[in-house]
Amino acid sequence: MSRQTTMDAETATSQPDGLPENARRLAIFSLAIGVAMASLDTAIANVALPAIATQLHTTPASSVWIINVYQLAMVATLLPFAALGEIISYRRVLIFGLFLFTLASLACALAWSLPSLVIARLLQGIGASAVMGVNTAMLKAIYPTRMLGRGYGTNALVVAVAFAIGPTMSSLILSVASWSWLFAINVPLGLVALFLGRKVLPDTRRATHKFDGLTALYNIVAFSFLILLFGDAAHQEKFTTLAMELAGTALFFALLIHRQAGHKAPMLPIDLLRRPMFALSVVTSVCTFAAQGLAFVALPFYFFVTLGKSPVEAGFLLTPWAVMVAIMAPIAGRLSDHYSPGALGGVGLSILALGLVALVLMPDDPSTLNIGWRMGMSGIGFGFFQAPNLKGFMGSAPPTRAGSASGMVATSRLVGQATGAALVAYCFMLSSEHGATFALWGAVAFATIASIASFARVVAVRT
């Protein structure tokens, strides 16, 4: 056994193996509320943009910053918060994230102008990032080792369902109240999560190295440039703009890698990416969430434009995906406690790819049942992937680097979703009539690549 493996094993055995059952239930409830709020607010404001723009007397183009600033704040700060969690404990970072998110949600609800709302959304995104950056690592402290798969299944269920029902929930709230209630509803939920979290969330062993503020700054700027580049490239911005953003991305990633060279726990975990299982988990996650991003943005247009469904029907037809994810995620989580995460994820992603192919190849005038079973099949595949992928992610990192692994879980998900959304915009630039179909074929391609990468993890474990 290598020296590093010995150290990992000693660290793992020196900490309590999960919480007692009653405390565990309360802790996971607190964590689930935080994760659900952060996931919902990634998409929940999209539906309200026209109403917000009208009430705040701003243009639709300017109002898009309400969405963009939240996503930028999340992606840019995930890894710094994950690194900070390893040093000061995941519990402290999570409590801070819940507090800031709740306070910023109140500020969003009380915003009186576009600048005030954008600033509040920026703070809300930072709070969400603190929650999402360490939530997977916290699961390892909440659940005993033998039940980790179940914990990952619950987490996957919360993230997937929250992301899927976000637009529908937003529409329901807007049908009976103003847009400010989209944010105000987070306040009581956040207070409950904070109260429970302070009581039952476990403290975790802290690393001995110090937090590097300059490395965090390089990370924030690098990922901000990257997300801006994705969005502007999809909308075919001027070459000079794209060139500047590409140069900024390359420069700050180079500075980041140089700054953390030789560090025993780098913020951008290059050391973990040298582990085949971890690297393949990153590839699997990015490609899968790119496929999901492509599908969830393109499908409403596909139902509305290509199949001639009404907006209400289009929203209803997305439901089987979310329902099947809710059913399959806990099942896959339990199975991942006994079977290879790579094999389970590969099977799920193969089903997802086949479901997406079936959607693209539907007859010209499909019945609701014809569409429903295809959406359900895609949901089964996606739900079967998530928990095993989390198990593969976290299992391929040593216990002392659980924060870095947790940060990469969230970062790979958001980068994948941002990539998918940007590619949908590009597909519609290519063809307004067939853009949705092009995007769905792109989703098929990403799901297929993800399936291959997941199956490759079986070989990586054996070797």
Account of the protein in words:
This protein has 463 residues and is mainly α. The protein has 20 helices and no strands. The protein is globular and about 60 Å long. The N terminus is likely disordered.
Keywords:
Growth Hormone, Chain: A, mainly alpha, 2 domains, 463 residues
Short description:
The protein has 463 residues and is an all-alpha fold.
- The CATH superfamily name of the largest domain is MFS general substrate transporter like domains
Our Rg estimate from Cα atoms comes to 21 Å
Report the biggest beta sheet as strand number plus sense, adding barrel if it closes: none
Instruction: Give the overall form.
Output: globular
The oligomeric status of these chains comes to single chain
What is the topology?
Layout: H1 3-13, H2 21-43, H3 49-55, H4 60-63, H5 65-88, H6 90-109, H7 114-142, H8 148-176, H9 181-184, H10 186-200, H11 213-234, H12 239-259, H13 270-273, H14 276-306, H15 311-317, H16 319-335, H17 341-360, H18 368-395, H19 402-430, H20 435-462
Helix pairs in contact: 2-7, 2-8, 2-10, 5-6, 5-7, 5-11, 5-19, 6-7, 6-10, 7-8, 7-19, 8-16, 8-18, 11-12, 11-19, 14-15, 14-18, 14-19, 14-20, 16-18, 17-18, 17-20, 19-20
